[in-house]
Amino acid sequence: SDLVSKTGERPKEAFKLSEVRLKIFLCSTYSDLVEERKSAIEAITRLQHQHDAMEFFGARANRPIETCLQEVRTSDLLVVIIGHKYGTYVGVTGVSFSETEFNEGSQLGKPCLVYFRDPNVPILPEHVEPSLKRTRKLAAFKKRLRERFTVASFRDPNDLALQIAADIPKAMTSMGSTETVEGRVQLLKSGANAWNDWRRTNPHPTDLRGAKLTGTKLQGANLSEAKLDGSDLGGTDLSDANLWRAGLRETNLQGADLGRAT
Questions:
Q1: Which among 193, 170, 96, 176 is positioned nearest to 135, based on CA atoms?
Q2: pTM for this structure?
Q3: CA-to-CA distance for 130 and 194, rounded, in angstroms?
């Protein structure tokens, strides 16, 4: 309701952002956070976004970690939920599934929302990490997350769901404040899915001049008629992208993948 002005008209930009549907990856351990994951999925579904959670992957030919990382790559936003367990290692890496998933998302520049279980809330003994080595790894992982993000704490599944429901729209605003070049670049970096959704309601030429997009995954992105003059697209994945009539004067495309691009 706070998006509606005194005249009763919805601001144009807010309406456009409400049309965007994100693909959200749920990153957490499983056995100790079953109820929290259910609540998070319900909150994401109520906001009409798509969730990627291991419970719904189904049978795949790939190894479990390969499936998870592929889902991370195609997601627009990561929701990271941390309890008191570090989780299962990926093979002999000594790194958990959750941290490996986060590392992949972080490397790709995916935005993240991070939630820690409140340490003052009593929990079942089996939901606490029994291994001293893994406890130390969990502490180091949490320290990394605190240094990079503003972390929220939750007391129970309902509390977590309420926070996620409130935080996703805020994240969308920061991802897609499309009035500025910086905002459009941030939305583009969040992934081709969210970008293409926005372009469907914003088909006009898009100003991205001077954008720093080195190494960004933009497979299938609709960049038709976009003004990319002077941008850095070095090493960017532009396979299957639509670059019809895009402005590319003095644009760096060294090492970019343009396979099957228009």
A1: 96
A2: 0.63
A3: 40
